[in-house]
Write a structure and sequence with these properties.
The complex is a heterodimer of chains A (155) and B (145). Chain A has 5 helices and 4 strands; from the N terminus they run ααββααββα. Chain A is of the alpha+beta class and 155 residues long. The longest helix of chain A is centred in the first third of the chain and has 41 residues, at 24-64. By secondary structure, chain B is α+β, with helices and mostly antiparallel strands. In chain B, a hairpin with a 2-residue loop joins strand 3 (125-133) and strand 4 (136-143). Chain B is globular. The chains are: A alpha+beta (155), B alpha+beta (145). Chain A binds chain B through residues 1-12, 14-15, 17-18, 22, 30, 33, 37, 64-66, 93-97, and chain B through 2-3, 5, 7-14, 16-17, 19-20, 23-24, 28, 32, 35-36, 39-41, 43-47, 63-64, 67-68, 70-71, 88, 91-93, 96, 111-112, 115-116, 119, 139.
Chain lengths: 155, 145
C-alpha cells in the first residue's frame, strides 16, 4: 500500500518517534538533513532578497498549502503567525500517538538555514499539541535575543 | 473510513517521503524502515488493521480506491472469491518523484510490501506483493487458508 501524499505527515510523525527513541542527536541530525535539502529551494532567495525573499517564500507556502497563516513584513523583522498548522493538525488527527517533538522540526530546519543566510530565527511554539505558533526572523542579533527573552519570560 | 482527505493535493510530499526513506535506510538499515512501516500499518491505519482482524476488508478496499483515484493512479482493483487483487500500472508517487527529477529510492517499494504485511499481521488476511517494474506492482489480498 502506497503512503498517499495526504498522509505524509503521519509517516513523518512515525519517523520522528523512531529517531527520538534513538537519541536527541539522531533527531537533530535528521532536521539538519531536511535543512540541507531545503537550501536548494530557498537559501539563495534568502541571501539575495533578505526578509522580502523570506516573505515571498512563506507566502508561496501559505497559498500552496492552504495555511491559515498571517505574514507581516516589517523594516527589521518578519513575523509569521500560524493560526492553524495543517501539518500538526493532521498529526493530531491520527490513530497513532503524536510525537511531542513534532513541532520542533520546523525550527530544527529553518534556524540553521536562516543562520547560513545571516539571519536569526526566534520561534514561539506555544504548545506541542496546539497547532498554532509564531516565528520571528531578524537580521539584528540583539533584536532577536530581546524577542527570545520576551517569549521565555512570558512562558 | 478513518481518513478521507479532500481539497488540493500536495504531490511534492512524495518527494519528501522518498528522501526520508533513503535517509533512514542508508543510516539505520532496511530493518529500521520496516519497523517504521509496521508502525504506520498498525497504528496510523489502526482502523483498517482492526477491520482485517474482524475479517472485514471493506475499509482497506475503500481506502485503496479512494486514495489511488484521488491521485489519478492507473490501477485496477478486482474482487474475487478469495479476496481481491490490486494491480497498479503506474504508482502516482513514483511518477511524481521522477517528474521532480529525483531518483526513486531503491527502498521505495518496501512501503507497499511492509505496510500491507503489517495490516494483515495477526488477522485472517494475507498479502503477497509482486513488484513488476518501477512503480508497477500487484498485491493479492486473500483470506489465509
Amino acid at each position: 500500500m502506497m503512503i498517499p501524499s495526504d498522509h505524509f505527515v503521519r509517516f513523518y510523525n512515525e519517523v520522528f518517534k523512531f529517531l527520538e527513541a534513538k537519541s536527541e542527536k539522531d533527531l537533530r541530525d535528521y532536521w539538519l538533513e531536511i535543512s540541507r535539502h531545503q537550501e536548494g529551494h530557498c537559501l539563495e532567495l534568502f541571501k539575495t532578497k533578505g526578509l522580502k525573499g523570506m516573505y515571498e517564500y512563506w507566502e508561496h507556502i501559505r497559498i500552496e498549502e492552504n495555511c491559515d497563516m498571517t505574514l507581516t513584513l516589517n523594516d527589521d523583522y518578519l513575523k509569521l503567525e500560524m493560526h492553524k498548522c495543517p501539518s500538526l493538525s493532521k498529526v493530531l488527527d491520527n490513530d497513532a500517538t503524536p510525537s511531542m517533538r513534532y513541532c520542533d522540526h520546523c525550527e530544527g530546519w529553518i534556524s540553521p538555514l536562516l543562520a547560513k543566510a545571516g539571519y536569526y530565527c526566534v520561534y514561539d511554539q506555544i504548545a506541542p499539541d496546539i497547532p498554532r505558533c509564531e516565528m520571528y526572523v531578524y537580521k539584528d542579533k540583539d533584536l532577536a535575543e530581546k524577542k527570545r527573552k520576551e517569549i521565555a519570560d512570558r512562558s | 473510513m478513518r481518513y478521507k482527505d479532500t481539497g488540493e493535493l500536495h504531490m511534492d510530499f512524495h518527494g519528501a517521503t522518498n528522501t526520508t526513506i533513503d535517509y533512514i535506510a542508508n543510516k539505520y538499515g532496511k530493518e529500521a524502515l520496516v519497523e517504521i512501516f509496521h508502525k504506520v500499518g498498525k497504528d496510523v491505519y489502526k482502523s483498517i488493521h482492526e477491520g482485517l482482524k474482524n475479517d472485514d476488508p471493506s475499509e482497506l478496499i475503500e481506502h485503496l480506491n479512494y486514495y489511488l483515484t484521488r491521485e489519478k493512479a492507473d490501477y485496477t482493483l478486482t474482487e474475487n472469491e478469495d479476496g481481491f487483487v490490486l494491480d497498479v500500472k503506474q504508482c502516482p508517487a513514483v511518477a511524481h518523484i521522477k517528474s521532480l527529477g529525483l531518483e526513486v529510492s531503491p527502498y521505495f517499494n518496501l512501503q507497499y510490501i511492509e505496510i500491507s504485511n503489517a495490516l494483515c499481521d495477526s488477522t485472517p488476511w494475507q498479502c503477497t506483493t509482486e513488484i513488476i517494474g518501477e512503480g508497477e506492482y500487484r498485491q493479492t489480498f486473500s483470506r489465509r487458508k
